[in-house]
Here is the input.
Amino acid sequence: MKQAVREWTRLFSRKFARNWKTPLDWKIIAGSRRKQLRTECRNTQLTSAACLSAILACVISLLAPIRAKAQLPGQNRPAPRRDSVQHVLLLSIDGMHSIDLANLVKDRPDSALAKLSLHAVTYSNASTSFPSNSWPGLLSMVTGGSPNVTGVIFENSFDRSLSAPASDCSKIGTTVIFDSSIDKNRDAVDGGGGIDPDKLPKDPKKGGTPVFPHNFIRVNTIFEVIRRSGGRTA
Here is the structure.
């Protein structure tokens, strides 16, 4: 029995002698592995930095001729002058599609729009706002915002924070109407002198003051930007 135990011990020692590690051995191995990983990581960072520097150098070298060319006026056209545009006319035609303009230019080349198109840029890849309506469509052009940004989806809507026109603001929540019916005289060309404040919703948070259309919009427009820059608008 003792002989068998000694033989088994001898075989076990020979078989696992190379795989047997003491806690000190494992500590040394772990330390070496960490050092190796740090070295590999440092090499990877240096390689990435070198590649990035090379890419940036190539981009800068490619952009340099473009920048130099952009700073010089072209041979075929003069350099643009600052403040060369004195007046801007914005035409908003209800229900007019790009195909309608193309047909008009083709069939009536002497028309005013056709003449304007001759020295203008026609952008045919535009899309209407959603919902497609006069007021939110126009606002998308003068604000750059969608109905979700401007807060305007239609001429007639409902606002839970405003009160009804000509009310004492005791009840909050009213229909908001911003069409031609709010004019002093909707049958007159100039609206009878403008908007009638008594036909506008009121803001209870501001002492019941009437809310004009330009105050109802959540964002500013190009008209306000022009005025702040010292310009004038119609």
